[in-house]
Amino acid sequence: MRIVDALPPVAPTLALLIAAVMGTLAKLERWRRALQLLAIVTAASVTAMCVVLLVHTGDGVEVHWFGGWTPRSGVAGAPSRIHAIGIDFAVDPLGAGMATLAGVLVTAALVFSWRYFEQEAAFFEALMLGFLAAMVAFSFTGDIFDLFVFFELMGVCAYALTAYRVEDRGPIQGALNFAVTNSVGAYLMLAGIGLVYARTGALNMAEIGEALAGRPLDGLVVVSFLIIAVGLMVKASIVPFQFWLADAHAVAPTPVCVLFSGVMVELGLYGVVRVWWSCFAPAFGAHATVVKGVWLGLGISTTLVGALFCIVQHHIKRLLAYSTMAHAGMFLCGIALFTPLGLGAVGVYVLGHGLVKGSLFLGSGLLLHRFRSVSERALFGRGRVLPLAGVLWSIAALALAGLPPFATYAGKGLMEDASIHAGLPWLPAVLVVASALTGGAVLRVGLRVFLGLGHQPPDDATSRHAGFEEETGEEQHTPVTMWVPVAALLAACCAAGLLPALFDGAQTAAARLLDPLAYGHAILAGTPSPVPAVHLESTAPTLFDAGTGAAAAVGAVIVGVVPCAVRVEGRARSAPARWLRRLRHLQSGDVRDYLTWLVLGAGIVGAVLALGAMR
Amino acid sequence: MDFLPYVVSAWLFGVGVVAMVTARNLISLIMALVVTQSSTYVLLLAIGYVTGAAPPIFASVPSSTPAVDPVVQALTLTDIVVEATVTALLLTFAVRAHQRFGTLDPRELRALRD
């Protein structure tokens, strides 16, 4: 047995085991530093294992059957079918890549929080490791019920981390909103899984795919796909299921936001991709175009709503959360292209976005640690004492907009090429506008906070409430353990953008994932999946990519500088401002409103899907 | 009457969501969430039969007798464990909310305004 065969089960188990040990020892104050160090070492080891798996799975799927229960044929009821009687981890390059990203971000967040929290118990680290284990296992699993279990484990850790500052009011309300909406999503998903099991008698995703492929599409399959996808899209913050996102980001400790924005939201989309292509795409057949249209519609609405809410925000963590939402919408558009280049581009873009967004959230953590506020207005000009942070922030803002040579540039460029190949020449325009708006909003924050550019904006309610008690007391000194992760994540994003092998690898991996029969064969029959015979596009950057990259970066600078030069605050009574205020009131903070939107959205998406599938 | 469990399941889900949306108390909101989840238990148990199976424990019945599918029972148990965890966590939040806000009315929680 090779060592690499043991890695899929060991990586999440190790994190879970150490999390359990730390949970029991957390109150030993003298061991505080040792426990923190243990957590960092564990997270780094898990990351290393995921990197090994990523390199190793470059040529296929690494399958692990728990307890050695490999698939058998000749099971009663369907003797000709190969039946997965066991539970498997099926690690392909996209899954290993998501797990690696989760590992890197958890490690960076743990290093950052070395001197961030004042209290003594190490429950934070234990929860972070539990969160990591759930994310890695979610990326690895080949079983649809386990997908639900790890979805919920991820959720429970995330809810607890959101409410970590349980002495304050905001975190409690944010965690409640987050937990209730995501739990309803999870139950929808579970109901869908139950329906699929009733139809196929299978929980293994490859087996479900094979069992559904031979039948005509019917209502039960459409409904089960709909509710599974809606459940996952709640986590992916797709409009109109996104309301929990900003609330949770506003109140969760900043190192936790790194994980929410950088990888958890994207894992929701990863789940959609996994479930669609492994289980449902063959069953939908020609009706897949309906799904494609629905995803494009949802993706574009999410992108535009996210970008709009992002530029009008002054609460830095909320602003970054809306930028994540805009990017999640762009990722969904890329997935909806249904091509290897499109999906591969999303993979690269997710990696680049996760790293740069992690750097930005940790940067806002620096501000919070130093000045006890994350309000752009309250922080006006006070960042002048942190010039290095200002430089890193501005570079990260432009990287977010897709400045070469960051991985976000490569991901966005590839996605633009893919949309032109797929016959959607207008999609690059949406990507450029959304990138410019979100990157520009972040840049504006940087210019105001670190340079004090423009007019001192008036104080308002947001700025007074934005500095809740995540940290105690202003600090005169920023420890080096906080600087290093901010710079390292940005450097990693740049390095990833300079690796052409990554782009080709992502496209090949995507091509294999889009070929459900090859995937099913690799898992059920145990034969390595051949590279499917599809035409792979060139991933070399083109002049067009450079042009759109430059346009997005210039756009971001304009969006960033103009509000500093012009007084926009005085125009609050104009008609667009009134409409915007009305729109922002939808983010009411009342979880019951969010649930209404969730049900309404699921109904609308379901109606469109059903009408399309009937035609 | 084969469809009855499915109707009950859908009904429980719907009633739970309506109760959550109209809840005036966090505890009843969380209990409504539990009702919503119990719809998944009913659904899982409703689908938990296979025909033509060879049950592993006894072999003296004709194979046309519906046999209980052990997989869904394992699923339901896992589901209950998950639900217990989430409910416990949510009830903790509710207790904390009562301490900090002095109320359990979701309309009175005003710490988050965009």
Features of the shown structure:
heterodimer; A: 615 residues; mainly alpha; 23 helices; globular; B: 114 residues; Helix Hairpins; two-stranded antiparallel sheet; elongated
Give a short summary of the structure.
The complex is a heterodimer of chains A (615) and B (114). Chain A is mostly helical. Chain A contains 23 helices and 4 strands.
Alpha carbon gyration radius of chain B: 20 Å
How many domains of chain B, as an integer?
Answer: 1
Task: Name the shape of chain B in a single word.
Answer: elongated
Structural class of chain A: mainly alpha
Helical fraction of chain A equals over 70%
Strands of chain B, total number? 2
Largest sheet of chain A: 2 strands, antiparallel
Q: Biggest sheet of chain A, strands in spatial order?
A: 1-4
Largest interface: A-B, 53 and 47 residues
- Strand percentage of chain A lies at under 5%
Please explain how this structure is put together.
The complex is a heterodimer of chains A (615) and B (114). With 615 residues, chain A is mainly α. Chain A has one domain. Chain A has a two-stranded antiparallel sheet with strand order 1-4. In chain A, helix 5 runs antiparallel to helix 6 and helix 14 runs antiparallel to helix 16. Chain B is mainly alpha-helical and 114 residues long. Chain B has one domain: Helix Hairpins. Chain B is built from 3 helices and 2 strands, in the order H-H-E-E-H. A two-stranded antiparallel sheet of chain B has the order 1-2. In chain B, helix 1 packs antiparallel against helix 2 and helix 2 runs antiparallel to helix 3. The longest helix of chain B has 32 residues. Chain B is elongated and about 60 Å long. Chain B starts with a helix and ends in a 13-residue tail after the last helix. The model of chain B has no long low-confidence stretch (mean pLDDT 85). The chains are: A mainly alpha (615), B mainly alpha (114).
